[in-house]
Design brief:
mainly alpha, about 0% strand, 5 helices, single chain
Length: about 80
């Protein structure tokens, strides 16, 4: 799943109950964060939510095609947190 990106992972979550369950597990998101080097044990704090950590630390080109589109999504997510 790590190399599918968030769009494919989101689509998989709507496929059936099994994939929905897999995409809702924190362990899935932790593994994705580790495999994409978004987080490394012993070097970074353990986040409260792995899914949110994944979302707020985009990886180009896996998650988005370019840096500009990644930053737009992060900015929108941050605005949602403030609102």
């Amino acid at each position: 799943l790590a190399y599918t990106g968030p769009q494919v992972t989101s689509a998989l979550s709507r496929t059936n109950k099994f994939w929905y369950g897999v995409t809702q597990e924190e362990s899935t998101w932790r593994t994705m964060c580790e495999e994409l080097y978004k987080w490394k044990e012993g070097e970074d704090e353990v986040p409260d939510s792995w899914k949110d950590f994944y979302k707020y630390n985009p990886c180009v080109p896996i998650d988005y095609r370019n840096v500009h589109s990644a930053m737009n999504v992060v900015e929108m997510a941050r605005n949602d947190l403030v609102a």
